[in-house]
Amino acid sequence: MDKELIRSLPQVDAVLRNEYLTELDDRIPHAILLSAARKAIDSARQRILSGELTDAAEISVESIAKAAADIAEEASMPGLRRVINATGVTLHTNMGRARLSKSACKAVIEAASNYSDLEYDIEAGQRGSRHSHIEKTITDITGAEAAMAVNNNAAAVMLCLSALGRGREIIISRGELVEIGGSFRIPDIMEQSGAILAEVGTTNKTHLADYENRLTEETAALLKVHTSNYKIVGFTEDVSLEDLAALGAKTGLPVIFDLGSGLMTDLRGIGIDEPTVKDSLKYADVIMFSGDKLLGGPQCGIIAGKKQYVDMMKKHPLARAFRVDKMTIAALEATLREYYDVEKALENVPVLASVAAPREKLRTRANHLAKGLEKASPSIRAKVTKCIDQVGGGSAPTAELSGFAVAFYSDKVSADELEKAFRLGKVPVVGRINKDNLIFDVRTVTDAEIKLIIEKAERLGAEGRI
Ligand SMILES: *Cc1c(COP(=O)(O)O)cnc(C)c1O
What we know:
Layout: H1 3-7, H2 12-17, H3 19-22, H4 30-49, H5 61-76, E1 84-85, H6 102-113, E2 120-121, E3 126-127, H7 132-142, E4 146-150, H8 153-165, E5 169-173, E6 179-180, E7 184-185, H9 186-193, E8 196-200, H10 208-214, E9 219-225, H11 241-251, E10 255-260, H12 277-283, E11 286-290, E12 301-305, H13 307-315, H14 317-321, H15 326-338, H16 342-348, H17 350-355, H18 359-376, E13 380-389, E14 401-410, H19 415-423, E15 429-430, E16 432-434, E17 437-441, H20 447-462
Parallel strand pairs: 1-15, 5-8, 5-9, 9-10, 10-11
Antiparallel strand pairs: 2-3, 4-12, 6-7, 11-12, 13-14, 14-17, 16-17
The structure holds pyridoxal-5'-phosphate.
């Protein structure tokens, strides 16, 4: 241990007075700067004690202040940060699923910064219903009799099963006992809801007679769950929603359909073969779907269908526990409004614009990015490649969207180091590594973000890091 070095460690005050920290004074609270200065000095002390730090230059006021400035910058960054998603996966659950439309963002700011008629009926001058705002839009667009929104689709399923099936049996095919993203499992939700699971059929085949034979006095409903994140292929058979609806009509039992994604318009033309909300409502009495999958809105779960059932759910005690915030209602309503004109929705709802992006547009974007990266550092070699993109978020598992990406490497650093350099720092860019190349898929990157990536590459290039 070098006692001399320990003694010459700078004082906190001296570090705080250094330009590196005074520069940050107007942006970063003093308490954070103070704590950063202490941490920087402390860390140097530890490194001297362990024999790692032996050079006096490293403990100059300036060196310590520079380290403290980095610590302060890091500490003052928000916990939830913007990320550039260069994975090509449009509905990336780890990166927040749907990006909202401009109109939805505007509506959120309006709702957040003002009082509103959230639960106030302006016409009548008295208390109104929180559900009314989106109910009107959903019923207009889909033709459903009634609708409501809760926190997410898992909550929607839970509420529905609880309101319609508590203490009684709900029949479901063994081929549809799905797990979505680890924590959502139909059998577990069913158990929590208090409804009793009545499984019928086998994993690969379920016939209408299986449902019929399972009917008892205790049957409360027939449930169909869309296998949104996998497909059973080969020797398979399931009962269509239409046939299940016929059995429901015959027996007077409600038919519930968890369709998952909430697709509002037919996207089979681009290879996305998912049930649409409208088609599902033709047969089911109640449907549930996510707000932030292919619908392209905020996180929420939407319940739509016959008024008698939706009313039971609105009155259920869980509805209060699962209720959505005003900002969600604002964003959802604005998103739904985009669907009054489907052509426009394909442009204005970012999720749809992303999955339906024309190939030429993606190619141009990729070309632009590849050129920008090569210009940023003489060590970078970039080329545009074709790729197959997934929709993500447990939607359309077999859909293969053909897109473009930039594959690049640096003569200077390994692919791992390159990946890390782009992922860390001010504007995190998340891509993937494939055979010594870093891949940036441009489907999920806007033109404005291409510019940010190039600027970041230029900074890294200028610092000699890539
Ligand atoms: C995604 C999905 C859910 C869960 O929805 P969240 O909004 O993520 O809670 C439930 N059921 C199906 C069929 C799904 O696809």
